[in-house]
Amino acid sequence: MIHTQISLMEQLKGMGIDPQGTLLVHSSLKSIGEVQGGADTVLDALSAYMQPGLLVLPTHTWSYIHADNPRFSVQESPSCVGILPELFRRRADVIRSWHPTHSVAALGKDAAAFTAGDERWDTPCARGSVYGKLLDRQADIMLLGVDLRRNTFIHGIEEWLDIPGRMTDEPEQLYTVTPGGEELPVPSRRHCGLSWSQHFWKVERVLEQGGALRRGRFGDAPVMICGTVATTDILSRMLRSNPDLFSDNEPLDDLEVPGPLPKTKRVVPD
After folding, report:
1. Distance between CA 189 and CA 187 in Å, rounded?
2. Is the N end or the C end of the chain the one with fewer CB atoms within 10 Å?
3. Which contiguous run of DSSP H or E holds residue 159?
C-alpha cells in the first residue's frame, strides 16, 4: 500500500491526537513504509494536521557535540536522531532551540516562545526547558516506529526528581553559535552512568495500563502515544519508590506496578 498525505492525516485523527495541542514526534522514517512523495509528504502530513497547534521534533546533537568539539551551530549542526528531524529543522517557519546537545525544532504560532531560553540550562532536560514546557502544555509524545527507549522526556522526569547517577557533576564548556553568528558559552552537564534509556522499555505495560500510553499506526509503522501528564505522574511515583527502576534490563514484577490512574476521555475537534 502506498500512503498519501491524506491517508496519513486520517490516521493521526484516528489516534485521537489533538491538532490544537502540542505533539513531539520521535521517528523512524523507514518504518512508515512507502509514501507518495517520501519524507517530505510525512512532514507535510504532520505539519498540516498540527497547523492549529504546535509540532515539535528533536534535533539533538549529543552524539558529536562535546568538550572536544564544543561548538553547536543552530543553523548548521545536523541532527543525530534521524532524517525527519534533519529535514524538518530546515523548513520555512520552523524554529530550532539553542541547547547545544538537546535542541528541538518547532512549528506553530508560539514556536518562538516554546523554544526560547534552552541555552540558559546546564542540563539536557531541565524543568524550565522545552521538556518541562511539554508537561506544562499537557503535550503528547508520539513514538513513530520507535519504542520507549527513544523517549527523551523520561530523562526529564529523572532530572526533575534528581535521581542519583544520571548527570555528571561538573559541566563541560560548550558553545552555541546563534543564527546571527554570536557565540554563547553554555556550561553543560551530560547524561552519564549506565545506558538508562535502554531500560525504558520495561515500563511500557505500566504506562498502558495506567492510561498514559495508547497505540495506533502511521503508515505501516506501529505508534505509541504517551501523554506527558500521566506519564510523569506514574513514573514519578515509581522512581520515588525505586530510584534504581532503570538500572537493569529485567522485566518488572507485578508487585512493582502501581495502580492505574483514572482514564479521561479525549475530545478531538473535527
Report:
1. 7
2. C
3. helix 153-160
